């Protein structure tokens, strides 16, 4: 079901436009994504050459705003294709006055049209939609189709950090990382009962953890 447009959405987005990198997210013919080139300059956007990290599917921005607050010397771009959702993330960043965080309302298929090659150190995938039906597997953000997109964006030895509550999706992801020649490390099958430090709990993560569900986490690095 398509989400109904929030009341005053355009006005709310306009009030925090300095946090939203302009994109064209209307074309759904992803087969033509490679034909579009609107590469951004992160040095112009952030006014520095600090390392760049990227979150794909940021939701309402709880994770990325906290991460940006903790690491002022890293630049962050957070991507969320639904403007109804990303508006809340932009408003959080504006309220916190985070100069090292920007957002893009964009489908992941179009990332190479905007993000320069070999410019990203870390990509975060937090509680991505698992698309449980097998016929929709290609839509999963850890499908090898997307992993090849990430390979274009990541620097040498760049990493993907993933968290999910879905065991089957996690197993699928491990298989895809291996098939795409990523090196898997720091695997946790129960994050909240591990010795991992510095975890930032997302909105979904708290919900699932409160229900007693284990949180799965891994890091996948380019070889």
Topology diagram in text:
Layout (H helix, E strand, L loop, with lengths): L8 H7 L26 H5 L5 E5 L5 H9 L4 E5 L3 H14 L4 E4 L6 H4 L5 E7 L17 H10 E11 L2 H13 L2 E7 L14 H8 L5 E7 L1
Parallel strand pairs: 1-2, 1-4, 2-3, 4-5
Antiparallel strand pairs: 5-7, 6-7
Helix pairs in contact: 1-4
Percentage of residues in strands: 15-25%
Task: Provide the CATH topology.
Answer: Rossmann fold
Arrangement of strands in the largest sheet: 3-2-1-4-5-7-6
Q: What number of structural domains do the residues give?
A: 1
Q: What is the name of the CATH architecture?
A: 3-Layer(aba) Sandwich
By DSSP, the count of extended strands is 7
C-alpha geometry? globular
**Main beta-sheet strand count, sense and barrel state:** 7 strands, mixed
> Can you count the helices?
8
Task: Summarize the amount of helix as a percent range.
Answer: 25-40%
What is the rounded distance between the termini? 40 Å
CATH H-tier superfamily? Vaccinia Virus protein VP39
Please compute the radius of gyration using only Cα atoms. 17 Å
Key features of this structure:
223 residues; alpha/beta; Rossmann fold; 7-stranded mixed β-sheet; 31% helix; globular
Fold and architecture overview:
By secondary structure, the chain is an alpha/beta fold. The chain has a single domain (45-222), classed as Rossmann fold (3-Layer(aba) Sandwich), CATH 3.40.50. The chain has 8 helices and 7 strands; from the N terminus they run ααβαβαβαβαβαβαβ. It has helices at residues 9-15, 42-46, 62-70, 83-96, 111-114, 144-153, 167-179, 203-210, and strands spanning 52-56, 75-79, 101-104, 120-126, 154-164, 182-188, 216-222. Strands 3-2-1-4-5-7-6 form a 7-stranded mixed β-sheet, with helices on both faces. Helix 1 (9-15) runs parallel beside helix 4.
């Amino acid at each position: 079901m398509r989400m109904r447009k929030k009341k005053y959405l355009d006005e709310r987005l306009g009030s925090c436009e300095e946090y939203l990198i302009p994109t064209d997210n209307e074309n759904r013919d992803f087969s033509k994504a490679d034909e579009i080139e609107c590469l951004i300059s992160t040095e112009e956007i952030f006014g520095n050459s600090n390392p760049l990290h990227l979150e794909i599917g940021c939701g309402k921005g709880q994770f990325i705003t906290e991460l940006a607050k903790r690491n002022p010397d890293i630049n962050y771009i957070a991507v969320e294709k639904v403007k109804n959702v990303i508006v809340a993330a932009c408003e959080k960043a504006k309220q916190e006055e985070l100069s090292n965080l920007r957002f893009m309302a964009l489908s992941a298929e179009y990332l190479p049209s905007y993000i320069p090659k070999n410019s990203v150190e870390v990509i975060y995938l937090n509680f991505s939609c698992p698309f449980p039906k097998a016929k929709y597997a290609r839509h999963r953000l850890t499908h090898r189709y997307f992993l090849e997109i990430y390979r274009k964006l990541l620097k040498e030895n760049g990493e993907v950090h993933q968290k999910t509550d879905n065991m089957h999706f996690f197993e699928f992801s491990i298989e895809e990382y291996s098939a795409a020649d990523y090196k898997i490390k720091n695997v946790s099958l129960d994050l909240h009962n591990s010795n991992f430090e510095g975890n930032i709990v997302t909105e979904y993560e708290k919900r699932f953890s409160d229900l007693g569900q284990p949180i799965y986490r891994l890091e996948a690095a380019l070889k």
